[in-house]
Amino acid sequence: MSWLYWSAYKRLEDYIKLLSLIAVMYIRLSSSFRLSGAFAQPSRLYLKPSLNKFSLRAFATVMSKYQITNHVGGALIDAVADDHQEMYTYYDQYVKSTGDVDAQERWANQFTWEVARHAVGEELVIYPLMEKHLGEKGKQLADNDRSDHQEVKNLLYQLESLKPGTSQHADLLKNIVDHLKPHNDSEEQEDLPLLQKAIGEQGSQDAAASFKRTKKFVPTRSHPSAPDQPPFETLAGLMAAPIDKLKDMFTKFPTEEQKASVKN
């Protein structure tokens, strides 16, 4: 029954987003559209758009803020997608902090921490499930995803040697995000919907819980030399975690208030 409540909630959430989109579109674009004969001649209702630069820019702005997706449904999909969104949020804060070296360092550290934990968490929990339940297709998808992760791990490792506030640091971080975006999109749109269909609702909830738990015990820094296939990944991750967590005590991060403010 809890699954039905959750599914209904997600549908309601999408409907609210859709209504918000319609309302904002009407307000933002009303000055660019002209309604002709709408009430006098209902059968001849039509819109004559004045497609100037403002209307196109307003449309793009609204669409970027109000994303209505075909929600497949699944706790695992939501858990992974939430992580992806956090990555983008932290990077956006890094960009907005240009000129403030201290703030950029904090957001870069937070970004690296999130990406490293997320990547290893997927390798520990999600990719083995794909291989188990999706056969040869799952193995191919998992191998491709691990390859993507390896590229990002290598780039993150390079980032740690660069100084925040420099063009080299900013360029490399942008390169990392550019690598992540198509990978994340592929997971949300192809990999995870296939896995969700194979493991079912309860399996999705169990996998999401396991994914979230595992992230608490994996490295918080990039370890490109660590093996990325189980069971060695689990051992390497757990062995590296204590050292990394000790290092984190001496590393700058955004405050909890700062993180909460950008999520609201």
From TrEMBL:
Residues covered by the Hemerythrin-like domain: 76-195
Alphabetical list of Pfam families matching this protein: Hemerythrin
Gene3D superfamilies the UniProt entry points to: nmb1532 protein domain like (1.20.120.520)
Disordered: annotated span: 203-233
PANTHER family hit by this protein: HHE DOMAIN PROTEIN (AFU_ORTHOLOGUE AFUA_4G00730)
Protein name according to UniProt: Hemerythrin-like domain-containing protein
Species per Swiss-Prot/TrEMBL record: Psilocybe cubensis (Psychedelic mushroom)
Lineage: Eukaryota, Fungi, Dikarya, Basidiomycota, Agaricomycotina
